[in-house]
Design a protein that fits this description.
three-stranded antiparallel beta sheet, IsopentenylPP_isomerase_typ1, alpha+beta, chlorophyll biosynthesis, isopentenyl-diphosphate delta-isomerase activity, isomerase, EC 5.3.3.2, five-stranded mixed beta sheet, 233 residues
């Protein structure tokens, strides 16, 4: 039986118990489902090796600036860290289980961009998301919570209307490559208390700048690789 955490923000608690994540094996085959709460308990990650499917959106405007968000203070995992545009989970529902061309993850991305950032669905058509890769990683948040995800990386270039949901997002900013490098420097130096999410840092260190350059050149589809699962744990 799952024990309710009374210290948890009410909105986040509801999401933790209502949302059913898609459990997968290390080859991204669906093996079941479990609520978000149980998927993010480190004791389950370590003892049961629970691994769930996730997505990370990288949204660029027409100037090829990347939209970043700072996660809200009430987030259960990694509160107040800066990260890519949107990071969440496809849910165990028909529309988000579709594996062909990563359609389930793309449907989930459109849903969560509205939920978290108030970006209307018409601003981010599902067919405009380009799946560019998959990675598997594990990251503890604190002693109790953590992440163990098979993460779909989704790129999209669109000018959008943004109206962040304060339950999810504390702040947003667009950055160019030089500005992001300065953020990385500050995070590494511990300046201004700035922290980056572990999954965003893995993408930055392994893929982001190369993919960003290809996005600018219009050659992103040529380097997209959805066959490989990069194991970065």
């Amino acid at each position: 039986m799952t024990t309710v955490d009374d210290t948890m923000d009410a909105v986040q608690r509801k999401l933790m118990f209502d949302d059913e994540c898609i459990l997968v094996d290390e080859n991204d085959r669906v093996v079941g489902h479990e609520n978000k709460y149980n998927c993010h308990l480190m004791e389950n990650i370590e003892s049961k090796n629970l691994l769930h499917r996730a997505f990370s959106v990288f949204l660029f405007n027409s100037k090829y600036e990347l939209l970043l968000q700072q996660r809200s203070a009430t987030k259960v995992t990694f509160p107040l860290v800066w990260t890519n545009t949107c990071c969440s989970h496809p849910l165990y529902r028909e529309s988000e289980l579709i594996e062909e061309k990563a359609l389930g993850a793309r449907n989930a991305a459109q849903r969560k961009l509205l939920d978290e950032l108030g970006i209307p669905a018409e601003d981010v058509p599902v067919d405009q998301f380009l799946p560019v890769g998959r990675m598997l990683y594990k990251a503890p948040s604190d002693g109790k919570w953590g992440e163990h995800e098979l993460d779909y990386l989704l790129f999209i270039v669109r000018d959008v209307n943004v109206n962040p949901n304060p339950d999810e997002v504390a702040d947003i900013k667009y950055v160019n490559q030089d500005q992001l490098r300065e953020l990385l420097r500050k995070a590494d130096a511990g300046e201004e208390g700035l922290k980056l999410s572990p999954w965003f840092r893995l993408v930055v260190d392994n893929f982001l700048f190369k993919l960003w350059d290809h996005a600018k050149k219009g050659t992103l589809e040529e380097v997209a690789d959805m066959e490989t699962i990069h194991k970065l744990t």
